[in-house]
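Illustration: SWIM-type domain-containing protein.
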Amino acid sequence: MAFSIFYWANYTAGTRKLSRKSEIAVQSDHVLKFVYDKEASYVRGTVQASMRDRSYNVTITLGPNYNIEDSTCECVNGQDKCHHKASILLYGYKNVSKTDVRQSWIKNPKSAPPRQTKTMEELFPAPDRFCRV
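Result:
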């Protein structure tokens, strides 16, 4: 398996409230951005806070034996354990497949331009010698 549930289980071990809050955050689609780099063993993401107008950036370095080597979050509890970090770990387990390497997902990109459709003539213009005027 590419991203193990053991990262989340070890991080939330002994803290039922932390594991429950992270489950609710994932179910409520509060994970807005997720990036997983398997070679560098890190995870980054953005988690929406309970306050709708605030989100926190999270970075987690994955260690051996499904432990977390280092982690940061922009929230008040960012240096300790927080449910934003646990949410990123749980989201990774539920959404990363075996073939994912340096994959990222952005939910509802607001800055993406709208898709434009093109006609066959625009995609494959006729050479000048065949054009009729």
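Reading the tokens back as a structure: Residues 5-122+124-129 form one domain.
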